[in-house]
Each structure stands twice: as structure tokens, then as C-alpha cells.
Description:
Elements: E1 8-12, H1 19-32, E2 37-41, H2 47-56, H3 66-90, E3 94-98, H4 101-111, H5 116-127, E4 134-139, H6 142-149, H7 161-177, E5 182-186, H8 191-204
Helix pairs in contact: 1-8, 2-3, 3-5, 4-5, 4-7
Amino acid sequence: MSTSKGKFISFEGIDACGKSTQVKLLLAEMNKNSNCTVLVREPGGSTISEEIRQILLNDKLDDMSFRTEALLMTGSRAQLTNEKIYPTLSVGKNVIADRYSDSTLAYQGGGRGLDIKWLIELNRFATNNLNPDVTFLLDLHPNEALNRRGNDNDRIEKAGFELQMKVRNSYLEIAKLFDDRIVIIDGHQNQNAIHTEILNELNRRKIIS
């Protein structure tokens, strides 16, 4: 899938790593500088994708199989990519995504034990081979994430510390596979330091100026 001038930036990390704060800071910064930018989230971001999100995060659906979870995640992504992301990029606007394809590799791959190679191919099908220009991985220890999150957990979050540790380790391995795209940032820093590091990297890559 080809795009024109729009740039695609994604953020990844375990739950409560601070990425949602950073995507909002970056969105404001890019739009302040007249870099027309749109924010999307996963799972969700479109009418159909939000319906899928409600199923995925429903804490009463504990019997959902891991394969079903992976297919629902990528189904939501396929709709979001087709309906929102690609049309936005194709007219020269930028997209920031709060999670994208790497989340499936980390959560359903590393966290749930599904085959990573199979998930990579599933992602390629769902996204029509669209990849972010750069991905920021906010790396945070699960102990700190649990302190930040509290007790208000959805179906995936309530799987607890063991899942989050597997996911974190998986993210770090995925970063090695895609080291030209994924930038690891220490999520234990304060939010201003993280934001500055992100801006510096985007400037270095000439994505913003």
C-alpha cells in the first residue's frame, strides 16, 4: 500500500506505560506547527472497530480463545486502516496511532503464546502491508505500570503481572526485529523528558521540523 506525503507514527508499550499521554502531547505539538495530524487508537477508532473493542475488552468474556482475540484485534485494525488511516495519509495528512500492529505481536504473540510469524502475516493481510514510519516503544517495568493503573482493569489488563511481563519482554524482542522502525524510550522518565526525546527523534528522521 502506498501513501503520499502523510507520515504515520505509532506508540506501543504495556498497559499504563504513558503512551496515551505522549500521543496527546505529540498531536498538540504537530498541529501547533501546522503539520495537520490525526489521532487514532486501537482497538477502535471507527464505528465498526469500536464495536469490536467492546467485545475485546469485556471483562465478562474470560472464555475467549487467544486465536479469537488475535483475529478480532486484527479485524479491528483492518477496518481502521481502510476507513481512517490510509485515506488520511493518502491526502498528505499525518496519523498518530495509540497502538498498531506491534501490539498484536506483543500481546497475542508474546503474551498469549501464538506464533509470531503467523501473526506478522496476519497483520500484513489486515493492514495491506501498511507500516508506521516510526514506532515509539515506551518501555516500563510492569511493577511501575501496576502502581499507575490501580484497580480499574478491562479483560486484558486484569490478566495481571505475568501477562504484562511477557508482553514487555516480547516488545523488546520485536524491537530487535524491526530496529530501523522501533525506537525504545525509557518510560520511567518524566513526561516532559520523554516528549523531548520523541521530538528529537522525529527531527532527526526529518518527520517534523
